[in-house]
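> example.struct
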């Protein structure tokens, strides 16, 4: 007697895909809960499907298909692929609070955390490498799972260092109502320590004509 298991397998794959979509929505909700800002949440939310899309391309190149193990790997990776983007977004926002232009804030913010998130991602990928090189039936079974997780992790790193800064340039705005001290600006650090008046935030196009900046630049910065 022939027993067809294909319908049960298809139902399991569809159920796993639905759980992955629910996990993505929950991840976006948690990000919004803690960031408490819509624009950074939108940037981070866009990075999740982008990372998974790049992971799909990597799976296609390596010859792996969507099955129970690879879908489970992608579902597990959803919560991890967003970590690098959150770190980059928060650091860019911190530099925007210093009064820097968007371009300078993005360059400085990404440069500061690039090494840290690269090390963190590579450490996670290395954890799964022993599973990918196991010999025998166990290796054939779990190798797609381990390699899919690794591809998804590397995709998240690529997105965090390339696509997220571009999205931040489009979506993020400098925080309003306060201005933090830029540790890279000696004048602001000296003023914060009580060594002199703190210079006002420079507007785009300011050449720094005086230590406290000219009236035209101050008017431009208030308008911005």
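> example.seq
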């Amino acid at each position: 007697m022939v027993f067809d298991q294909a319908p049960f397998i298809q139902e399991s794959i569809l159920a796993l895909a639905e759980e992955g979509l629910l996990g993505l929505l929950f991840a976006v909700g948690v990000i919004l809960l803690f960031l408490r800002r819509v624009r950074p949440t939108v940037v981070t939310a866009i990075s999740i499907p982008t990372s998974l899309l790049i992971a799909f391309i990597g799976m296609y190149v390596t010859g792996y298909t969507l099955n129970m193990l690879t879908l489970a790997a992608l579902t597990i990776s959803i919560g991890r692929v967003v970590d690098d983007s959150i770190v980059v977004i928060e650091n860019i926002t911190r530099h925007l609070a210093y009064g820097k232009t968007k371009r300078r804030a993005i360059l400085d913010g990404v440069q500061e955390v690039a090494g840290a998130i690269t090390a963190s991602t590579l450490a996670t990928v290395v954890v799964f490498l022993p599973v990918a090189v196991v010999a025998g039936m166990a290796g054939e079974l779990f190798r797609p799972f381990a390699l899919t997780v690794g591809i998804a992790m590397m995709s998240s790193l690529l997105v965090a260092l390339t696509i997220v800064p571009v999205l931040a340039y489009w979506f993020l705005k400098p925080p309003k109502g306060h201005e933090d001290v830029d540790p890279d600006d000696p004048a602001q650090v000296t003023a914060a320590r009580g060594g002199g008046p703190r210079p006002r935030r420079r507007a785009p196009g300011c050449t720094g004509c005086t230590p406290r900046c000219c009236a035209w630049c101050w008017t431009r910065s208030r308008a911005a």
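> remarks
Helices lie at 6-35, 38-62, 68-96, 102-132, 136-171, 186-192, 215-223.
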